[in-house]
């Protein structure tokens, strides 16, 4: 029997939190959201996913990737969460790979946070006139002079506006950046999308050097039209036309961000900012009063020492049995 380490007991008691990688601010912590994360082997023991639906031409290779489209013409594939992402503040980190043969390729893939889910369509494999946020990784240039491709852009859909496909989304762009080298990159390609409600939306990319992030955009909610629905499903989709590419998802990691301090960046909307009332199971929650905070802290202390006592008791029983077995 192995005794638990001190750090594992502290985590069990809730006394230790892991800071989000994107921030040096010790006041911002994170909680992993298993309901919106995907890692190999991607499927449960019954070859189904408890938290995601897959469709179209999507193929899953459990030891390597989720392939939204193969390097073949006229393919569409998608993945969508079964439950909405209701966290007030969150961070999504996606590892992906866009690769194929030849110099001609297309069309690209998208990351979605929308009211609609699991609906195949003409916008990178998903539906047009969506309501919510779309992040488009566009690898084929239709008609957009002065812009280098691949191009990554954000669009905020209102449920009525059509994606400007003829001009690669120029009429719809909320923010974006060129990312030459994103396709067939020599290092793992990643995207990190971070959202603080009523505060900011930012996107960082890794494709030039491993562990080096390049800022694509950083939007202030006061100056930009950031209106992510309170009930939004997390999705990924891809599409090929006459030209094609492999669009592979390696991993998807979502985290709920919360603030330790009252006035830090992890605040919530309106009265939630002061009272700490979340909107759902994975919303940010903070104590309303100092009394409640001290009660919760004392409860964690009791839980911690209970865990230590339990570990010591188990070790004592094991040692007694071991000695008895010698005789």
UniProtKB/TrEMBL annotation:
It is a single-pass type I membrane protein. The chain crosses the membrane at residues 294-318. PROSITE patterns: L_LECTIN_LIKE (PS51328). Keywords: Membrane, Signal, Transmembrane, Transmembrane helix. Pfam families: Lectin_leg-like. Residues 30-257 form the L-type lectin-like domain. CDD domains: lectin_leg-like. One of its GO terms (molecular function) is D-mannose binding. One of its GO terms (biological process) is endoplasmic reticulum to Golgi vesicle-mediated transport. It is found in: Membrane. GO terms for cellular component: COPII-coated ER to Golgi transport vesicle; endoplasmic reticulum membrane; endoplasmic reticulum-Golgi intermediate compartment; Golgi membrane. Residues 1-22 form the signal peptide. Residues 263-289 are annotated as: Disordered. The keyword Transmembrane helix applies. This is L-type lectin-like domain-containing protein. It comes from Penicillium frequentans. The lineage of its organism: Eukaryota, Fungi, Dikarya, Ascomycota, Pezizomycotina.
């Amino acid at each position: 029997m192995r005794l638990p380490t001190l750090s594992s007991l502290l985590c069990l008691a809730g006394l230790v939190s892991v800071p989000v990688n994107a921030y040096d601010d010790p006041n911002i912590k994170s909680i992993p959201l298993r309901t919106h994360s995907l890692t190999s082997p991607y499927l449960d023991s019954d070859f189904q996913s408890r938290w995601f639906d897959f469709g179209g031409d999507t193929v899953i290779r459990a030891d390597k990737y989720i392939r939204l489209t193969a390097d073949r013409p006229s393919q569409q594939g998608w993945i969508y969460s079964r439950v909405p992402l209701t966290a007030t503040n969150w961070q999504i980190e996606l590892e992906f790979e866009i690769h194929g043969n030849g110099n001609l390729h297309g069309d690209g893939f998208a990351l979605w946070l929308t009211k609609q889910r699991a609906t195949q369509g003409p916008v990178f494999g998903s539906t047009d006139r969506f309501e919510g946020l779309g992040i488009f990784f566009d690898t084929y240039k239709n008609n957009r002079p002065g812009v280098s491709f691949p191009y990554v852009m954000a669009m905020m859909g209102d449920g009525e506006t059509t994606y400007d496909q003829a001009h690669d989304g120029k009429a719809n762009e909320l923010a974006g950046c060129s990312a030459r080298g994103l396709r067939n990159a020599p290092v793992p390609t990643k995207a990190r999308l971070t959202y603080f409600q009523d505060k900011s939306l930012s996107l960082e990319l890794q494709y030039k050097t491993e562990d080096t992030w390049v800022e694509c955009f950083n939007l202030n909610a006061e100056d930009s039209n950031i209106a992510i629905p309170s009930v939004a499903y997390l999705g990924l989709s891809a599409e090929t036309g006459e030209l094609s590419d492999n669009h592979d998802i390696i991993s998807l990691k979502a985290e709920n961000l919360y603030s330790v301090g009252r006035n830090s960046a992890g605040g919530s909307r309106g009265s939630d900012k002061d009272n700490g009332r979340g909107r759902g199971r994975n919303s940010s929650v903070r104590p309303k009063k100092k009394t409640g905070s001290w009660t919760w802290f004392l409860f964690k202390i009791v839980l911690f020492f209970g865990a230590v006592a339990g570990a010591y008791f188990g070790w004592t029983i094991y040692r007694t049995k071991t000695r008895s077995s010698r005789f």
